[in-house]
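Sorry, can you check?
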Amino acid sequence: MKRSVRHFMVPLSIVVVLACLAVGSRDAAKAATASQDAGSGAASAPQAANADHARSPAELHRQYDPSFSWLAWQLFLRIMTPTNGSLTFETWTEQCQLNPSAVGCPSAAVVAAAQGGASRHVRLLHRGLRTKKDTGSDCSSMINMPVGGYPPPSNLTSKAIFCEEVYVSPAEAEFIKSGLTTLADQKTYGDAHSGAINFPGTEVNLIRLDTDSVEVKVDWVPASSFHPTFACPDTTERLYTETINGTCYALVAIHIASKSMPNWLWATFEPESRITNPNRCDPALYGACLDPWGTSSRQEYGKGIKPQQSAQLKLAMGSARLDPAFRNYFLTGVQTEFVESDGHPVQLGNSFVEFNQAVAPGNSSCMTCHRYAAFDGKQTARGAPENNFGHPPRGWPSVGYACNAHQNANCIPAAKSTTQDFSWLLGLMPYSSTALRSPIDSTQYPTGTSASGRKSSAGH
């Protein structure tokens, strides 16, 4: 694990938070035990992960240094801060605003109908490309069958759906709009830059939203997807809810990726809700949870356990004036490396996002998956993403280094391709503004996997 740089650019309001971190985060990361609030009906001690996921305190420290947990929470605090009646990230550019012809975006007719003839802004809720489209909307059907033997939540209704949004920071939006909104343009850019697209970012553990590329993917679920369900708005303040385009949704998953490190920093958050996220932190799914800065727990904890929020996070949330419901949202984990020092693959996944993308248990790694983002230069079928979208090629791993042999260094398989700097978002862009699309190259997909990429590692 790379050592953290401890000189951060932060607002004055959270200077005291930095002081708390400096006083003992490294010793705390090595602590074998910590007090923990289990919540109603749960054991008070952290639930240990199973043997396949067990780590020593030193290994946990390397995998999840408290500074990275701190970085993840600072990103969360800033993007969730209210701004003119919206959350800050909601004032950024949504992926369908970068190019309305991007794959999976609502059609112009749908947007016009939602606007009702007015010029008002319409939220562009859509499906994820690695999910099954709901027949009655632009969103996705939730998976109601086992994935790799792991059962779905038992409280789903027959027509359970969820909707996705992906926002990019102003710096990233400007970069993409400058000439990367089609796959052909990306190839042209790559040809002039040694085959690589390199997003702007500090890459040195600094958080500067004005200059860093940041991507925020959020999943929303309507109350009609569950039985029993949540109130909307949720008066218990356990779920953050919004009425979007006339329907009330709960925020059930947040993925944050930041170019504050060369391989980006990856973090995922979920609410502690038995209704919407009953499988959070299950080591049998995508791994137990660990947050040595935002909670009082200094070791992994498992499904059904609600840890105490740390004093420094409570103070930071108050300073940022976050909605009270966010006190019930927790960091699942942070990923900054492909493998641990012993070569063991680092896993990170969200029990809602990855399960509903049909990612098999134990096969989720944000970094590994996104490292495969590359455009091979081949024309795509109309309405289809780049050929390799959302999954590794045949025989290549879904966790660990993005390499199919001699995994002692990161590599990508596609020769003469334009790498997209960990951003599957670029792969959703149309091939060009005017060119006809050829049929999908089926040889790009493993046997038994459709062009939607349902069988593989976690996609965008």
